Fold this protein.
Amino acid sequence: MAEQLTPEKIKAIRREIAEMREEHVGCRHEGCEWGRFLAYIEALEQELAQAQKEKGLFQFGDFTLHSGQRTDWKIDCDALTDSDIETLAKIISQRFRFSRVEGVSTGGLRLAKALENYCSLRERLLIVDDVLTTGGSMEKQRAGREATGVVIFERGDCPAWVTALFQASEVLE
Ligand SMILES: [Zn+2]
């Protein structure tokens, strides 16, 4: 997209669409197709929203993970709602004390933002991510510093400094 869509711009576009709707849906302008067109677009938007909502947290298919590994299932943390993220932040804050929090980009950023509300005075760096497979991204973010790591899901093996809230290990024992 050529232009940055700021919240103001989105609001302006929505207002413009609403005005067009008001003017043309059910209008009697001669030969006007705008009403039909706007209704059609609205139906498409609803269909898209529904499809996005139905995309699950866990999905079967043919996927390539960030680590480059192939897999037939994935955890899509974009499916977590803001309320899910808030709840996970609360759970983490009950188990860990930290003064600063960093999220691994991009999956850990939403969680890190939610965790900022729980920073306490104890000097401790918390690093978070959504899914850990090899631990490579977590190590890179830590860059040798002393830190506590927390991920929502692990599907590989966590290094000793990282705790996973939920495990779905693919490593066969
Ligand atoms: Zn019209």
User: Anything to note?
Assistant: The beta strands are 58-64, 70-75, 100-103, 125-132, 148-154, 162-167. The radius of gyration is 22 Å. The mean pLDDT is 89.
